[in-house]
TrEMBL record, chain A:
NCBIfam families: PDH_E1_alph_y
UniProt keyword list: Oxidoreductase, Pyruvate, Thiamine pyrophosphate
Protein role: The pyruvate dehydrogenase complex catalyzes the overall conversion of pyruvate to acetyl-CoA and CO(2). It contains multiple copies of three enzymatic components: pyruvate dehydrogenase (E1), dihydrolipoamide acetyltransferase (E2) and lipoamide dehydrogenase (E3).
Reaction it catalyzes: N(6)-[(R)-lipoyl]-L-lysyl-[protein] + pyruvate + H(+) = N(6)-[(R)-S(8)-acetyldihydrolipoyl]-L-lysyl-[protein] + CO2
SUPFAM superfamilies per record: Thiamin diphosphate-binding fold (THDP-binding)
PANTHER family: PYRUVATE DEHYDROGENASE E1 COMPONENT SUBUNIT ALPHA, PYRUVATE DEHYDROGENASE E1 COMPONENT, ALPHA SUBUNIT BACTERIAL AND ORGANELLAR
Gene3D superfamilies referenced in this protein's UniProt entry, alphabetically: 3.40.50.970
Catalytic activity, EC: 1.2.4.1
Protein name in UniProt: Pyruvate dehydrogenase E1 component subunit alpha
UniProtKB/TrEMBL annotation, chain B:
Domain Transketolase-like pyrimidine-binding span(s) in chain numbering: 34-209
Domain of life: Eukaryota
This enzyme's EC code(s): 1.2.4.1
Pfam families the record matches: Transket_pyr, Transketolase_C
Keywords, alphabetical: Oxidoreductase, Pyruvate, Thiamine pyrophosphate
This protein's name: Pyruvate dehydrogenase E1 component subunit beta
Known role: The pyruvate dehydrogenase complex catalyzes the overall conversion of pyruvate to acetyl-CoA and CO2.
C-alpha cells in the first residue's frame, strides 16, 4: 500500500511542530484530535461518464480511530451472530457482513442522518452505522421485544426511521426503486439530502433497477445507487451472472465510479463526491469492490464456489480493519496495545449486549395482531383457530 | 309461489316499515348528478388541494389527461412536480411510489388497468403491505394504488381480470371498490387520507355513468368510512352481496325479483378488505339466504370468503346453501357472445329463485320460520 503523509497546506506553517506534540497527546484510546491528515486511497478511482475525485482523502486521527473502533465492533458483532446462529438462538436467515464493514463506515463518514440509506438483507452493520444499538441488533436477531423491530422483523428487516434508515429488504432488487422513491421524496420536500440505495452484484441485473434508474435520470433524482460488489450472488460468481460485470458502467447515461470497497477512506471520498453530484446532477452509481468472508448466509459454507485461498488471501491483503490499523500505527496515532484494548472493549460490549438481549422477553402473544395496519379501523383479524384466536385491530 | 305464501304466513306484524333508503333521504329537490369519472376527478383535486404531500403518478396521467380522463385538468392545476407521467415501467414506478410513501409523502399511483399491477405486485405486497408490521410500526405506507379493475368490453383475456380477491387476501392492505359516484368520491378521499396502503379498484364501464349525489357528498370534507358495507336496498328474503358494477346488476335483479314476491336485500360491499362481516351476517340472519355476486374468477374469490364467513358465524340461520355467482372459470374470451357468458348478467342473478332454497324448503320454512321469527324478531 502506498501511503503518503501530506500535511494540509492551510496549516503548514502553524503546524510544523504539531505532529510530534499531537502524537504525544494522542496516546489515549479514542482520539478527539481533528488535525487534518491526508491519505491516499489504495488505488485510484475508475470513472464512467464523469471525472473521478482525487485519491487524496482528508481525514484526521479521530476519524481514523472511529473507523477502527466501529469496524471492529461490526466485525465482532457479526462473528458473535454466527455463534448465536449455530447455538440456534437465531433462526431462519442470517446474512453476515464481515469483510464489508468499510462500506458502512466510510459512507457514514461522508453523509448525515438526513441522508437516507436503504439496503437489502445484509443489513446488520448498515443499521449500526445509522446509530442502531447492539442490543437492538441481537434482540431482533433472537426475536425479542428489545429488538429494533420488536422481534417481528428478524435479520432481514431492521429499520431506523429516525436516522433515515429504511431497511432491511428481503426481495432482491426491490430496495433500489424504493431508494429512488426516497430520493424523489427528498427532492419533492426540498430537503437538500440524498439517498444511498445499496444492492449487490446479484441484484445488479434486476430489471426494476434499470426502470428506477431511468426514471431517476429523467427526473434528476438525488439517488446514489451503490453496488456492493462482493463478486458472488449467493453461489454464482459475477462472471456467470452478468455479461458485463463492470457494474459502475451499467448505468450507460448515468455516471459511475469504481471504488475499493475495502478502503474506508476511498468509500468516504466516493460517497462525498456522489452526494455532491447527486444534489446537482441526478443519479450516480458507485461500485464498491468488496468481499464477504462468510458465505451468502449461515446455511452456505461459502467454500463450494470459491477457494479457501481466495478468502484467506483477501483477509491478508485487503482486510478493511487491518488497513486502518496499519494506518493508525504508521501515523503514530495510537499504539498496538491501545488498539488491542479497543478490540477488547468492543468484544465486551458485544458480549454484554448479547447477555442483555437474552434477558429480553419474546413478544406478547397479542403482538401477533399489532401493527398490521397503522389504522386498524376495528377490523377483525384471525389466528389459525378462528374461534379462539382473533383480535380487533386498533 | 310458495315464497309468497310464506310471506303471508309471517304476516304483517313482522313486516318492518321500510325506512327511507339512505339514497332517497339525501335527495333534495335539486339533486345533482355526476359521473363516476367526475366524482373521482373531484376527489383527487380536493385531496391534492388540501394536502401538499399528495401527488399523482402513472402512465398518461398528466399531459394525456389520463388514459380514461380521470386525472383531467390536474396537471394544469398542480404542475408537473405533483402530477407525474411515468414511463411504461410498473415495477420501477410503483417501487418509487412506495419509497416516497416510506419518506412520508402520499402518492396516488395509477395503474392503467389492474392487469398491469401484476408487474408491480411485489412492491404492493412485500414493500407496501407488510412494512408496517415488519418494522413494528416504524414505517407506515400511506399510498393509494388505483385504476380500473375487472372486465371491460371486448378487451380480451389479458385485460379483463378482477384482482379483488388476490389483494384482499393480503393482511396489511385495504381494498376498496366503489360502485356509484358517492362511493367513488367518499372512498377515494378516505383512501388518500388513510395511513395504510389502499388498493382502489374502479371499473372502466362505470366511469361514464351518472348517479345523483347530495350536497353532503359534494362537500370537500365528505368521506366514507373504510370497512363498512352499505345496504343499497333493504329486503327480507335473500341477501345479495356485490361490489362495483355488479351492485348495479344486483339492484336491477332485485327489482325484477320483487315482482315475483322475492324481496332481496342488496349489500354494496364498498370495502373488500376489511370485509364488513357484521353487516353481511346481520343481513343473512334476517333473510336466511345468501347469494354472492362478483365478476372475477370463482375459485378462491370474494364470494368464497363471504360464504365461509357466513357459514362460520351464522350457520344456523341459513335456510339454503350459499350461492355464488361469479365470472366464468375461463380466461376472458373476445367474441361478444362468449364474453357475455363469461361475466354474470342480470338473468344469472334472477335465476336464484329457481334454486332449491326457494322451492322445496319453503314449506318447511313456513312452520320453522314462524317459530324462528318470533325468537329473532
Amino acid at each position: 500500500m502506498a501511503l503518503s503523509y501530506l500535511r494540509s497546506s492551510s496549516s503548514r506553517s502553524a503546524n510544523l511542530l504539531r505532529p510530534l506534540s499531537s502524537a504525544a497527546s494522542l496516546r489515549r484510546p479514542i482520539s478527539t484530535d481533528t488535525t487534518p491528515i491526508t491519505i491516499e486511497t489504495s488505488v485510484p478511482f475508475t470513472s464512467h461518464q464523469c471525472e473521478a475525485p482525487s485519491r487524496s482523502v482528508e481525514t484526521n486521527p479521530s476519524e481514523l480511530l472511529t473507523f477502527f473502533r466501529d469496524m471492529a465492533l461490526m466485525r465482532r458483532m457479526e462473528i458473535a451472530a454466527d455463534s448465536l446462529y449455530k447455538a440456534k438462538l437465531i433462526r431462519g436467515f442470517c446474512h453476515l457482513y464481515d469483510g464489508q464493514e468499510a462500506v458502512a463506515v466510510g459512507m457514514e463518514a461522508a453523509i448525515t442522518k438526513k441522508d437516507c440509506i436503504i439496503t437489502a438483507y445484509r443489513d446488520h452493520c448498515t443499521f449500526v452505522g445509522r446509530g442502531g444499538t447492539l442490543l437492538e441488533v441481537f434482540a431482533e436477531l433472537m426475536g425479542r421485544q428489545a429488538g429494533c423491530s420488536k422481534g417481528k422483523g428478524g435479520s432481514m428487516h431492521f429499520y431506523k426511521k429516525d436516522s433515515n434508515f429504511y431497511g432491511g429488504h428481503g426481495i432482491v432488487g426491490a430496495q433500489v426503486p424504493l431508494g429512488c422513491g426516497l430520493a424523489f421524496a427528498q427532492k419533492y420536500s426540498k430537503d437538500e439530502s440524498v439517498t444511498f440505495a445499496l444492492y449487490g452484484d446479484g441484484a445488479a441485473n434486476q430489471g426494476q433497477l434499470f426502470e428506477a434508474l431511468n426514471i431517476s435520470a429523467l427526473w434528476d433524482l438525488p439517488a446514489i445507487l451503490v453496488c456492493e460488489n462482493n463478486h458472488y450472488g449467493m453461489g454464482t460468481a459475477e462472471w456467470r451472472a452478468a455479461k458485463s460485470p463492470a457494474y459502475y458502467k451499467r448505468g450507460d447515461y448515468v455516471p459511475g465510479l469504481k471504488v475499493d470497497g475495502m478502503d474506508a477512506l476511498a468509500v468516504k471520498q466516493a460517497c462525498k463526491f456522489a452526494k455532491e453530484h447527486a444534489l446537482k446532477n441526478g443519479p450516480i452509481i458507485l461500485e464498491m469492490d468488496t468481499y464477504r468472508y462468510h458465505g451468502h448466509s449461515m446455511s452456505d459454507p461459502g467454500s463450494t464456489y470459491r477457494t479457501r485461498d481466495e478468502i484467506s488471501g483477501i483477509r491478508q491483503e485487503r482486510d478493511p480493519i487491518e488497513r486502518v490499523r496499519k494506518l493508525v500505527l504508521s501515523h503514530d496515532l495510537a499504539t498496538e496495545k491501545e488498539l488491542k484494548d479497543i478490540e477488547k472493549e468492543v468484544r465486551k460490549e458485544v458480549d454484554d449486549a448479547i447477555a442483555q438481549a437474552k434477558e429480553s422477553p419474546m413478544p406478547e402473544p397479542s403482538e401477533l395482531f399489532s401493527n398490521v395496519y397503522a389504522k386498524g379501523l376495528g377490523a377483525e383479524s384471525f389466528g389459525a383457530d378462528r374461534k379462539e384466536v382473533r383480535a380487533t385491530l386498533a | 309461489m310458495l315464497a309468497i305464501a310464506r310471506q303471508r304466513i309471517l304476516g304483517q306484524s313482522f313486516q318492518k316499515i321500510r325506512p327511507a333508503v339512505s339514497v332517497l333521504r339525501s335527495y333534495s329537490s335539486a339533486a345533482k348528478k355526476i359521473t363516476v369519472r367526475e366524482a373521482l376527478n373531484s376527489a383527487l383535486d380536493e385531496e391534492m388541494s388540501a394536502d401538499p404531500k399528495v401527488f399523482l403518478m402513472g402512465e398518461e396521467v398528466g399531459e394525456y389527461q389520463g388514459a380514461y380522463k380521470i386525472t383531467k385538468g390536474l396537471l394544469e392545476k398542480y404542475g408537473p412536480e405533483r402530477v407525474l407521467d411515468t414511463p411504461i415501467t410498473e415495477a420501477g414506478f410503483t417501487g418509487i411510489g412506495v419509497g416516497a410513501a416510506y419518506y412520508g409523502l402520499k402518492p396516488v399511483v395509477e395503474f392503467m388497468t389492474f392487469n398491469f399491477s401484476m408487474q408491480a405486485i411485489d412492491h404492493i405486497i412485500n414493500s407496501a403491505a407488510k412494512s408496517n408490521y415488519m418494522s413494528a410500526g416504524q414505517i407506515s405506507v400511506p399510498i393509494v394504488f388505483r385504476g380500473p379493475n375487472g372486465a371491460a368490453a371486448g378487451v380480451g383475456a389479458q385485460h379483463s381480470q378482477c384482482y379483488a380477491s388476490w389483494y384482499a387476501s393480503c393482511p396489511g392492505l385495504k381494498v376498496l371498490s366503489p360502485y356509484n359516484s358517492e362511493d367513488a368520491r367518499g372512498l377515494l378521499k378516505a383512501a388518500i387520507r388513510d395511513p395504510d396502503p389502499v388498493v382502489f379498484l374502479e371499473n372502466e364501464l362505470l366511469y361514464g355513468e351518472s348517479f345523483p349525489v347530495s350536497d353532503e357528498v359534494l362537500d370537500s370534507s365528505f368521506c366514507i368510512p373504510i370497512g363498512k358495507a352499505k345496504i343499497e336496498r333493504e329486503g327480507k328474503d335473500v341477501t345479495i352481496t356485490a361490489f362495483s358494477k355488479m351492485v348495479g346488476y344486483a339492484l336491477k335483479a332485485a327489482e325484477i325479483l320483487e315482482k315475483d314476491g322475492i324481496h332481496a336485500e342488496v349489500i354494496n360491499l364498498r370495502s373488500i378488505r376489511p370485509l364488513d362481516r357484521t353487516t353481511i351476517n346481520a343481513s343473512v340472519r334476517k333473510t336466511n339466504r345468501l347469494v354472492t355476486v362478483e365478476e372475477g374468477f370463482p375459485q378462491h374469490g370474494v364470494g368464497a370468503e363471504i360464504c365461509a364467513s357466513v357459514v362460520e358465524e351464522s350457520f344456523a340461520y341459513l335456510d339454503a346453501p350459499v350461492e355464488r355467482i361469479a365470472g366464468a372459470d375461463v380466461p376472458m374470451p373476445y367474441a361478444a357472445n362468449l364474453e357475455r357468458m363469461a361475466v354474470p348478467q342480470i338473468e344469472d342473478i334472477i335465476q336464484i329463485q329457481e334454486s332449491e332454497g326457494y322451492n322445496s324448503f319453503a314449506f318447511v320454512d313456513t312452520v320453522v320460520c314462524a317459530g324462528n321469527a318470533s325468537v329473532n324478531n
